[in-house]
Amino acid sequence: MGKALVQPVSAAARPLGVGLDSGAVRARMVQKLAEQGIQDKTVLAAMGQVERHRFVESALANQAYEDTSLPIGLGQTISKPNVVARMIELLRLGTTGKLGRVLEIGTGCGYQAAVLSHVASEVYSIERLRGLHEKARENLRHFRLANVHLIFGDGMLGYPKGAPYAGIISAAGGDAVPQAWLDQLAVGGRLVAPTITPAGHQALVVMLKTEQGIERSVLEAVHFVPLKSGIA
Ligand code: SAH
């Protein structure tokens, strides 16, 4: 590749997505994630591998590696890289090597599913908006990720066919964690979901399923699009 010949133009000026080296821009993003406290090397490597600019409109491609959430159509957003990395790190806590089967609720543009495909053996990702389900399929085609399974349906019901899951991660925030998710979680499995706390704001909730029951921790405040029931 002609990497050495490329003039040192600013990241924002580079026409990302047309074959130039976005790897360097991503490496900087990963470095920043590490500085922000993401420690899991497997997560950092996955974040460095997935070309985020391929998941957003070309007009937004030059913002793809900034730590910002971006619109993906139909009123939905792709989370900022820091939040994606943080949630996957929480999902993997205590795991050495790859996670087993993972369920993602809210495929959106498919970006997080692509990141998950590098840290889990199988990824089942469900989306309730047909337009986004189809867009994600289109976005992911390029990557040929054989272990990502996209499902169109209501993720509030989970996806029993892939259960039990080593991990469940929600990209949409509800008032409570649906019982179906806990039922479909393997013993020893972990769930990470933005949820409304008793204090009335949305925070990341982590649940660990043990033989004795569910261990729940409430972490930092977040802002996710709402978890809705039914399909559209
Ligand atoms: N992980 C996504 C983020 C998408 S935003 C990405 O990387 O792009 C959250 C998504 O959750 C939205 O697309 C929204 O339509 C979806 N969603 C909300 N409630 C849902 C439900 N019950 N089942 C499936 N998807 C849902």
Automatic annotation (TrEMBL):
Record's subcellular location: Cytoplasm
GO biological process, alphabetically ordered: methylation; protein repair
Assigned EC number: 2.1.1.77
Catalysed reaction equations from the record: [protein]-L-isoaspartate + S-adenosyl-L-methionine = [protein]-L-isoaspartate alpha-methyl ester + S-adenosyl-L-homocysteine
Matching CDD domains: AdoMet_MTases (cd02440)
Active site per the UniProt annotation: S79
InterPro entries per UniProt: PCMT, SAM-dependent_MTases_sf
Similarity section: Belongs to the methyltransferase superfamily. L-isoaspartyl/D-aspartyl protein methyltransferase family.
Cited function: Catalyzes the methyl esterification of L-isoaspartyl residues in peptides and proteins that result from spontaneous decomposition of normal L-aspartyl and L-asparaginyl residues. It plays a role in the repair and/or degradation of damaged proteins.
Classification via HAMAP family: PIMT (MF_00090)
Name recorded for this polypeptide: Protein-L-isoaspartate O-methyltransferase
